Amino acid sequence: MKLFKTMALTLVCLLLGIAVAWQYNSVNENLVLAQYEKKNLSQLVEELLLERENNERLRARIEELQQEVAALKDDENMDMKYVEDLKQSILMARVMAGLETVKGTGLVITVESGGQIRVRASHIQELLNELKASDVQAISVNDERIVATSEVREAGDYIMINGRQLVPPYTIKAIGDPDRMERSLNLMGGVLSKYQVYDFNVSLEKNDNVVIPGVRDDGTVIRTDRLTPVVP
Amino acid sequence: MVKTRRALMFIVFLLLGMLISLQFRGIINNQENNISVREMALRLEAEEAEGRKLLEELNSLETEWSQLLNNIGSRQQDPEIMELIRQRDYEYFRAGLTNVKGDGIVITMQDAQTAGDMNIEDYIIHDADITGILNELRSNGAEAISINGERILGTSKLVCAGPTIFLNKSRYPPPYVIKAIGDPDTLYDAIDQLPNVAVMRLYGIRIDIRKEYDMIIEKYRLYESVSEWLSNLEVATE
């Protein structure tokens, strides 16, 4: 009887020890996982898909460049194509910098005060951010092209972009997917619902032929005097 | 004696029972969530590593490509071609397609360590906080800006995505490191005196600003050729 009791107690203590160790182990494991816990599964899947898509694009671009490099190595006698390629890459870089006038499908939005509240720089800034979030390819406000160095600030009663004073109504043009842009502007609690609260007069029009002018090229908007190119 | 022993046994069994049920509950929960979460996290990590490798490969290919072009150009000894090459380098530089060097400031932003009793949202950094800083940098003459190594252009996407931000085509967790080339003193004062920076600091968001000389800002990462990327744009300049 005594033996049985001792054995039972030993067994229980053993089990308890194992259970404690097991529990401790899984708590530790959970700590490792905790850093991912902030992200739920759907967020992770979303990130994974995004990363995959980026990598897919990278692979395609690498393949394309490999072919171009091979062609360059092959082709000893240069012909017109080389000059054409150079001209094309100059043009595309200028399009990217916002120096060329471009056209395409997009949205034209006008915003004007309804009398109560003035349209401020921050209101326009918020709209621009929303458009940029929907993968826009070119934007302008009252024909001032938004480039990498473009600021949006208050200037007295009006707003200033690219060092120029703009007067209302503000016309924002954006080239990109018009449905996608419209959806994100119309989100609940989004930019347009805020504009409604401010009583702004807003019009929004999809257009197949939005023309956005290039930024002026006099060194005052796209500035490079403090930059030195680092060539590998 | 018997009583204490009984009581002891009771406690031991009680603990054992609690532990076992705790363990099983934990296992059941984990099996559903964590195993797939961990699996996804591992896959994501692998994919990100792959992405870094691909970017490196692309970078060295781009270098090779532009060197080949330059070699061919100089072999030609054709002044027209030399001029075109010079122009291409210049426009790439202006478009943000070249790494650049200069003086400026570095801003490091980190969410508050502990949230106080106000709304939790106030203790983390939002896209509007960052775009506000970008706008201030631009207003004060910044010529090149990057966030966590992503060059910021006129159309760059910057949105909050949970505790992270989505920049251009990738997602970044804090800290956010904003680099801007311009006049270091002007930029420093502008950001240091920004009302929203004071408000964020009040909430415990850590914002460190320092002047930096001869720093490099990386070029915009292209995942496709410029013409593919800007395929919606048709050049309308006459």
Detailed description of the structure:
The complex is a heterodimer of chains A (232) and B (238). Chain A has a domain at 102-212: Alpha-Beta Plaits. A five-stranded antiparallel sheet of chain A has the order 3-2-7-1-8. A three-stranded antiparallel sheet of chain A has the order 4-5-6, with helices on one face. Chain A has helices at 2-37, 41-74, 80-97, 121-133, 178-185, 191-197, and strands spanning 102-112, 138-141, 144-145, 152-155, 158-161, 164-166, 170-175, 201-212, 228-230. With 232 residues, chain A is of the alpha+beta class. In chain A, 50% of the residues lie in helices and 21% in strands. Chain B is 53% helix and 21% strand. Chain B starts with a helix and ends with a strand. Chain B folds into two domains: 36-95; 100-217, 2-Layer Sandwich (Alpha-Beta Plaits). Chain B has seven helices and nine strands; from the N terminus they run αααβαββββββααβαβ. Chain B has 238 residues and is an alpha+beta fold. Chain B has helices at 2-32, 34-76, 79-95, 127-139, 184-192, 195-202, 226-229; strands spanning 99-110, 144-147, 150-151, 158-161, 164-167, 170-172, 176-181, 206-217, 234-235. The radius of gyration of chain B is 27 Å and the shape is elongated. In chain B, the strands form two sheets. A five-stranded antiparallel sheet of chain B has the order 3-2-7-1-8. A three-stranded antiparallel sheet of chain B has the order 4-5-6, with helices on one face. At the A-B interface, helix 1, helix 2, helix 3, strand 1 and helix 4 of A face helix 1, helix 2, helix 3, strand 1 and helix 4 of B.
